[in-house]
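Sample intake sheet
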Amino acid sequence: MTRFTILAGLLGLVCVFGAPLSAAQDDIPASFSREYKLMLTPSLFVYQNEAQTVARLLAEVENTLESAIGRKVRAKPVLKKQREVRFYDVPRRCDLRHYGYVLRERTDKAQTEVTLKYRATDSQQVERHATQPRAPNAQSKLEADIGVQPDEPFNVVYSHSLSIEKRPALDEWQAIELLFPDFAIPHLNADKPPLALVGGLVIHERVYKNIKIDLGRQDAQMSLTLWYQGQPRANQSPLIAELSFKLDAQAQGYAPKVIERAQQAFLALQSWSAVAVGAATKTARVYQFQTDFCQSSD
């Protein structure tokens, strides 16, 4: 069965029943924020014409979603973030990735945020790994990333992340222990292997925001994120392009209609020509950038 057939069938259910999935089928815990993510074709963007391309593509998104969910979408994209992004791991072994972790550094002007994230397909496993931040300026998040793969229109990966605004040199294992005292992979904490910049890659991130989807009792905030290799040049296309929209965690639970509309919007966008179904996610693409960085990794 082709992806087109599956998608057509799902969209047919939307037309008949008014929602792609029933609320009873949704089992993401309310403590997790939800971010629906679609990878786009990077070659659609060129740095010197980036703003015009973003405006044109998001106008298409606005029309698509308003037709699909019958609610208002405001798409007036504004470049909100420009920062450098780096990932660190143990060279040749990628131990952090192997155990489900991501170590990321984001620098915006003079401020640097370091994030340690744990990922798994089991929400309970992620919750067991969750720890409360010790530092007063640290943040803790539980997230459900909802992506799409061929023949799988809702692919969920859960994560817990701890972020802190501080910048020790991330070239030694001790830096992780210093920033995140509760983190432990016993034999690695004992060996204290060196860390290195994954793929030698410094990413220049540009994030467009000011796109809001009316889902009823809760709005979804949409972003279009572009990752360039280094400082972008006029005729350069990004390595990665991603469209996403987010629903913040709700302690009292999500309204069923909000979830139905979010799912309906996500399905409608999957048939959009700019979407690259099956493309690597942002982090996966970074690890693929230099093929020998993880020689003994999976």
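Comment: The longest strand covers residues 73-89. Confidence is low (pLDDT under 50) at residues 1-20.
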